[in-house]
Design goal:
By secondary structure, the protein is mainly α. It has one domain.
């Protein structure tokens, strides 16, 4: 099954796009929606029937928090150039 469909980067989308966001056909999405809602999947807007793509993405990230932690890479801090030169010079004297 090949799904070719350009999804919007965020905001509200119809059920077809919400289904595709989680790689389901619309029929399968409707079938699985009660279970998804039970697991915290974001509900459709009561007025438009559209789903929030950003909320769907946030729900997906919450399922695997260890993969989507903020600051997984330590922040780069600037070093004092004098300290770097001194360390290099000290290393050369030792060798």
């Amino acid at each position: 099954m090949t799904m070719r469909y350009k999804l919007p980067p965020g905001g509200d989308c119809p059920p077809e796009a919400a289904a595709r966001r989680i790689w389901l056909t619309l029929e399968r999405f409707r079938e699985k929606l009660p279970d998804l809602l039970e697991r915290g999947f974001p509900r459709a807007d009561p007025t438009t029937g559209n789903f929030d793509i950003d909320a769907i993405d946030a729900w997906r990230r919450r399922r695997f928090p260890h993969l989507f932690q903020e600051n997984l890479t330590p922040a780069v801090t600037a070093r004092n150039a004098n300290d770097v030169i001194r360390a290099k010079m000290a290393g050369k004297r030792d060798g």
